[in-house]
Amino acid sequence: MLRNLVLALSLLALAQAGHAVNDECGGSSGGGEVMGTLLGAAIGGLVGSQFGKGTGKSVAIGAGVFAGGLLGNQIGESLDCRDRQYNNATAQKTLESQPSGTTSTWVNPDSGNQGSITPTRTWQREDGTYCRDFEQTITVEGKTQKATGTACRQPDGTWQIVNK
After folding, report:
1. Are 133 and 149 in contact (CB under 8 A)?
2. How many domains, the chain?
3. CA 51 to each of CA 9, 127, 163: distance values in angstroms, whole numbers, following the listed order
4. pLDDT at 91 exceeding the cut of 60
C-alpha cells in the first residue's frame, strides 16, 4: 500500500517537474533518475511522516525517504526525455483548455510508454488563482500507475502541481 502510494506520487511529481531537466532532449543523460530520486525521496518522507509516533515516526519517515527515492529513481530511469515532454505538454494543454471529465492521452511511439490526464474539478482559491483537481495514469513498460492531484495556474500561464 505505502509502496503504491509513494510510486503514484512520485509519478506525478516526476511527470510535472522532470521535463525541466532537459527540455530539448539533447544533452544530458541521467537527469530523470536524479530528479526522480530527489522527488521520490521528498514525497516518501512526507508520506512516512503520517505514520507512527516518537521513534516509530522517525523510522517511518526514514523508510519513506528510502522507498520514495528508490522508486522515484526507477521511474525516472524508465521515462525518457520524450516521455516527459509528451506528458507535460498533454497535462498543460488539458488543464488549460479541456472541460472537467474530458480525458486527454499521450503516447511516445518510440518507447511505447503512455499516459492520460483527466481534470475532475475546477475551482478558485481565495487569492483568485484557478486550480484543477485531476486524475492521471502513466504506463511504463506495460505497468500502469494511477494517481490524483491538484494543479494551479501560475502567473505565467503554466500549471503546477500543488498541495491543497
Report:
1. yes
2. 2
3. 17, 32, 19
4. yes
